[in-house]
Amino acid sequence: MMDIDRPKIEGSVAVGDGRRRIGFAEFGSATGRALFWLHGTPGARRQIPTEARAFATEAGVRIVGLDRPGVGSSTPHSYRNVYEFADDLGTVADSLGIDEFAVIGLSGGGPYALAVAHALRNRVVAAGILGGVAPTVGPDAIGGGAMRLGRRAAPVLQVAGDPIGKVVSSVLSVARPVADPAIAVYGRLSPQGDRELLSRPEFRAMFLDDLLHGGSRRMSAPFADIVVFSREWGFRVPEVGVPVRWWHGDRDHIIPYSHGEHMVSLLPDAKMFTMHGESHLGALGMSVDIITELLAVWDQPRLA
Description:
Blueprint: E1 9-15, E2 20-28, E3 34-38, H1 50-59, E4 62-66, H2 85-95, E5 101-106, H3 109-119, E6 124-130, H4 147-172, H5 176-189, H6 192-198, H7 201-215, H8 221-229, E7 244-249, H9 257-266, E8 270-275, H10 287-299
Helix pairs in contact: 2-3, 4-8, 5-6, 5-7
């Protein structure tokens, strides 16, 4: 595995009643403008492209990756809905001395990013969604995509998700010799856009780094995500007033491009960036452009 930039700071913060913890990893400048990066499903706090890590240092930006409950350094926990995550992120921001920030959500991190933008609207300056999951139930729902199967599996995962996660973690804890070839095999089975991205050593290194430092410790978060995505989110998408920038590949085989169009049509202040010919992971190859766009939104005058 090639060497990649390690976090400047890594640890966990007490949240909720103080008996739970959320893991975090920081990259870039400790005093720069902050962006919270919310990983996909599956994923953990280090699922941040190497280019974004380097750019954060060069541009004086602070990127904070978070583990969701049940992966890496975060305590397992079941949210009643997506919206409840916002309180935990707010606590982490307070503990790290972060007042204003942008938030980026990849795939399964998208709903959580929108929840934070809604709940912490006075602190969130912009939200970037990268091929984000759309609601599956309620007035903002749209059908199809991977969550069509996820909704069917949710009743089983609500009971069995944690035991399955422990088995996966046990496998990952001894899987280092085969993890990199496994990522390469997944890439060869993926559409062209993702296949090309996963053929690049720096992206395989990033996924392997994240997998071994997050998933090998605990791995119930992906199953908890599927369960909570099968419910109403706890807020309406049209109520998210924070500026949203949405990147979506028009050949996404996991979250259909039509889901991105649907969400952007519901959001009151949103702009779609279509990634032509790209699939689900395409936005990871555009991380510097994405961060630059969100910083430009940050620089725009805001209504009092």
